[in-house]
Amino acid sequence: MKFYVIGDEETVLGFQLVGIKGKVARTPEETRESLENAFKEEGLGIIIITERTASTVRSLVDQYIYKTTFPLIIEIPDREGKMEGRGSVRDLIRAAVGIHL
Amino acid sequence: MAMQFATNATRMELLRIKKRLVLAHRGHKLLKDKQDALMRHFLELVDTIRELRKEVEEKMQRCFQYFLMSRISTSRPYIEEALMVSNKKLDIEFESKQVLNLQVPVIVSRVEGDIRSYGFAHTTGNLDLGLQLFEETFPKLLELAQAEKGLYLIGDDIEKTRRRVNALEYILIPGLEETRRYIQIKLNEVERGNLTRLMKVKELIRED
């Protein structure tokens, strides 16, 4: 199975260096399109998407994360660093389980 | 007060409801146990993810800094050339692990080749360092992806299980209890009614 990267130029280039194909997405439309294409592609195991890019199409990403089994989606920070105000694991737990830890 | 179910107050019905009640209690206990077990897995995963994410994020950040530096000092064609000859092969496969009733994916990765297979003449040390760090970080990233997926799956199932437990605990079981009591009272009432009628009839017969 393969990987696929969606994100800004730097990130995609970085991943290409290790032999992972990717698509540069600059606008929400591009992101949406490349995400949808990636999901249609056969044999994709993991989709890596930068937080910043993912945040432009948050609802779509969430939908994929929660609803589909494959491929896996993982969000990583881009070179500008971790995004402020991104939901931490703790928030995720609260949303999913409805308990406070 | 829980609503009782619409039933005929008969002995048959009473027996049926008693059976259902036993079953509901058993189901409730099982589901509750399942929920606890899921929760334990869930919390374990949360701890791993918290650590992994911190590490991965910090390392990726440094990787990108190195890449950026190498972009500054090396012109794009050279980088792309270096990138093209990269013979690094990454292949992953999914296996699945059973966590209670859930299939949680486990990633098995195979890494082949050297990541730094380009010439050193046109690229800077920053690229080397960046790639080395990247190579180090990548397995962690996979682990993180796997753990997060597991977390989503388990979280989802916990929610479902919790709903079922609650439905049993707060709706079905109280409802059945209530119905059982109702039927029992009703039957007792009929019994008493019969008794008094019998006494009355006896009285009438004796008077004749």
How many individual β-strands of chain B?
A: 2
Q: Biggest interface, and residues per chain?
A: A-B, 35 and 50 residues
Strand content of chain B: 5-15%
User: What number is the mean pLDDT of chain B?
Assistant: 82
List the helices and strands and how they pair.
The complex is a heterodimer of chains A (101) and B (208).
Chain A: E1 2-7, H1 9-17, E2 22-24, H2 28-40, E3 44-50, H3 51-56, H4 58-67, E4 72-76, H5 89-97
Parallel strand pairs in A: 1-2, 1-3, 3-4
Chain B: H1 11-73, H2 76-84, E1 89-99, E2 102-112, H3 125-207
What report would you give on this structure?
The complex is a heterodimer of chains A (101) and B (208). Chain A is α/β, with parallel strands linked by helices. Chain A has a single domain (2-97), classed as Rossmann fold (3-Layer(aba) Sandwich). Chain A is built from 5 helices and 4 strands. Chain A has helices spanning 9-17, 28-40, 51-56, 58-67, 89-97; strands at residues 2-7, 22-24, 44-50, 72-76. In chain A, helix 1 (9-17) links the parallel strand 1 (2-7) and strand 2 (22-24). The longest helix of chain A is centred in the middle third of the chain and has 13 residues, at 28-40. The model of chain A has no long low-confidence stretch (mean pLDDT 74). Chain B is mostly helical and 208 residues long. Chain B is rod-shaped. In chain B, strand 1 (89-99) and strand 2 (102-112) form a beta hairpin. Chain B has a two-stranded antiparallel ribbon with strand order 1-2. The relative contact order of chain B is 0.17. Chain B has one domain: Helix Hairpins. At the A-B interface, helix 1, strand 3, strand 4 and helix 5 of A face helix 1, helix 2, strand 1 and helix 3 of B.
